Amino acid sequence: MELARGLAHGLALPSNCVFDIEDGGLAARPRLLVDIDLTDTRSVDRFRQAMGTPPARRDWLFIVARTDARHQTQTQANALNASRNIVRSEARPALLRMMSVAGQRDGSRAAVEALLAAPGGRSIHAAGVELAGLFSSFSDARPFSLQAVHAVGTELIGSIGDTGAANWLDTVRGHHEGTFQHCLLVAGVAAAYAARHLRGTRMARRLTDAALLHDIGKACVPLHVLDKPGRLDETELDLVRAHPRAAVDYLASTPGLEPEVLDAVLHHHEALDGSGYPDGLRGGDITALTRILTVCDIFAALVERRAYKPPLSDEDAIAILVDGALDGKVDYIRVRSLAEVFGMNLPATLDDVRVNMARAAESLPAQ
Ligand SMILES: [Fe+2]
Ligand SMILES: [Fe+2]
Asked: With bands split at pLDDT 50, 70 and 90, how would you rate the model's confidence at 236?
């Protein structure tokens, strides 16, 4: 058995070799153990050629040689449909652990099956695979398929219309973490907005395209910065603030990608009062598409589940967006439209919000 041989040799496998594993102790079906440096694009290309592009979903097991680029190797492994991505130094105990549960279900396969069975799971799985491919293409400066992005966007709008936004977002939060969770949530919130307010319009596709692509520039930002629970220092902030421009530098050469979508990706962190980045745009310079994407992005970030913070409720997230509108940062009309998606009816205008707040203050008993 190749696995036993690999273990016997202390996993001193020749680099870039592929082994068929038919080990009943590990699984009932054939598996592949791949020893490959996923940070080496030539190795990855050779592997893709050997396996066919795009690689078919199968039970692959990757062992990566390097430990200092987990984010990049994870996105590569996801793009190659890997079932597991194991750091080489941890491979031996991990394999032994898997062998020790011989005959039991494979965790990652079970996780995919659970996702597929959950509300909206098929569209979430498809979007997750597409996002992994996008991040990987960005990291390698390879082109991506705009058609595939369109197709995922259309599927999201249909799926979220059937499933309901709240259930769909719950499934994402239960099955994904980190940057992918955020990108999926933004795509889902945008699709829900499009399903309710933009169905059948050009803007609907532009919005889902922009939502799927908006944060791919984060592949440039070190993971320890992206995942830092506390405040970022100025150097770290500069790294984060570079992500919209990095995305557009990569996307600009994509044939068929509409300038409106590029503009929304570049400016999704602008604020109506000019305090945003990268260009400090103000009110009228920020397009309707960008304003909608910004509101969806902020909402998704607020309802995200992180290890260090529980998700806010939809109501609390909308309340924070209304505060942002009162502060002159985000577009109230788009906040109101998004609130409708989640079953909330906000006052017609920001002035009505102020009147309601004043009345509420008056009705409070005097101190
Ligand atoms: Fe962003
Ligand atoms: Fe974002």
From this structure: very high
